[in-house]
Amino acid sequence: MRVEDSGRAGILYFEGEPRWEYKFILRALEDDKSLRLASYLQTGKKQHLRQGIQNKEELQTGYPRDRKALFGYKAVIIGCMEASFFSLDQLKMTEEFVNRRGGGLLMLGCGKTFGDGGYLGTPLENVLPVVPAGRAALPEDSEARAQLTEYGRLHPITRLALNEDENARLWGRLPAVHWNLPPVAPKPGATTLLLADVQGAGGRQSLPLLAFQRYGRGRALALSANDTYRWRMEVESQYKYFETFWKQLARWMISNAPDPITVTLDRDSVPSGGSVTLRAEVNDAEFKRVNNARVTARISRAGGKTEERPLEWVGREDGVYQAAYHPKDDGIYTVEVRADGPALEKTDATGRAEFRVGPTNLEYINPALNRELLQKLADGTGGKYHTVRDAGRIPEELTYSTANQATALVEKDLWDMPALFLLFGALVAAEWGLRKRHRLA
């Protein structure tokens, strides 16, 4: 069973109880054409609601029971669902989903997750970016305002405005959420994007509201609040901060999740008469690398002919195939890689990539700032490297450089210059003439 259609990335959302957060998350993501949110809501004892499914079999038995079905998604969201709902094998599969498949995992704040959810001691304990903190308990429903960390000011998830200062100002205006969980702390390798300033029995505490860490090939996030819907309900309707936040969060979770067949090129821009190396990583439905597949690249140019090239297993890496291709004509080329073999009988995965052939302007290939190179050039030529923020100091620091032979510093005493001596003599003669004329001498 495939869980993606028309190029839409599949996200699995498991929620343990009907609540406002579930409703507003579904609304925020329903109009995003790049995503497909398949949700499972537990509405009562042995009762549930499925939404966004492709067919009647999807999620019919609850959380996926085999890796092929789970690994078909690119991200998993766990709402107010205790660990005992899942079997041990399902928890192990979820750990492998992040570690081996490279998927994204988000756990939402709730007493059944970070509180008494029982995830400590399970395979997900190492995956999550936060751990319980041994600090004073917090009063129930403590209010907390989201505060951006320095990393959060620039991160794509928490970017409500392009300008850093405006972004921080918008976050400061958002309504407070409620913290009703035990205190948590980020793990040493985790990155905190949002902090919550919470009043506890021992005083105010600054706790991680949104944090993430890399785990294996994937990413795991923890959102400690359970009512971010207040950023929609208590904000004027024309402001879409809640929708922007959740769409950016969902897209970031899936952005690094690979497809079963991943195609990469050694260059995106190929000079006329040059060559490009096609490279493909081939995995089966459980994202185990396959070495005995028949891999073929179908290469086509807009308005031109289509040709096929076999890709050979490189031998040094499991599941990696490559081949060199020499395009004859200039233009935009599309590469579509397919694989088949005993381990891929029930899969229909393809990988795609594009490259351009034609005259290249090297300065346009990678226009991004290369700070390290600029600093080396400045140091090597006796200059200084300045950013835009300290550009105002440049006039004060402009000096002659002796680092090369293009300039030379010459010092002369002003009193020993002929021009000054002649001027001095002319002034003395003029004074003497004036004094004689007026009979003052």
Overview of the molecule:
The structure is a single chain. The strands form 3 sheets. This protein has a 10-stranded mixed sheet with strand order 3-2-1-4-5-12-11-10-7-8, sandwiched between helices. The chain has an 8-stranded mixed sheet with strand order 13-15-18-17-16-19-20-14, with no helix packed on it. The protein has helices spanning 20-29, 67-71, 88-99, 111-115, 164-173, 230-233, 241-255, 362-365, 371-380, 394-397, 418-437; strands spanning 9-15, 35-44, 47-51, 75-78, 104-108, 130-132, 142-148, 177-179, 184-186, 191-200, 203-215, 218-223, 261-265, 269-270, 276-282, 294-301, 306-313, 320-325, 331-340, 350-357. A hairpin with a 2-residue loop joins strand 2 (35-44) and strand 3. The chain starts with 8 loop residues before the first strand and ends with a helix. The chain has 441 residues and is α+β, with helices and mostly antiparallel strands. It is built from 11 helices and 20 strands. The chain folds into 4 domains: 9-255, Rossmann fold (3-Layer(aba) Sandwich), CATH 3.40.50; 261-363, Immunoglobulin-like; 369-407, no CATH class; 411-441.
Globular, elongated, flat, extended or rod-shaped: what is the shape?
A: flat
Task: Write down the overall mean pLDDT.
Answer: 87
Give me the number of helical elements: 11
Alpha-carbon distance between the two ends: 117 Å
Task: Count the domains.
Answer: 4
The tally of strands reads: 20
CATH class of the largest domain, named Alpha Beta
Residue windows where pLDDT falls under 50 for at least 5 positions = 1-5
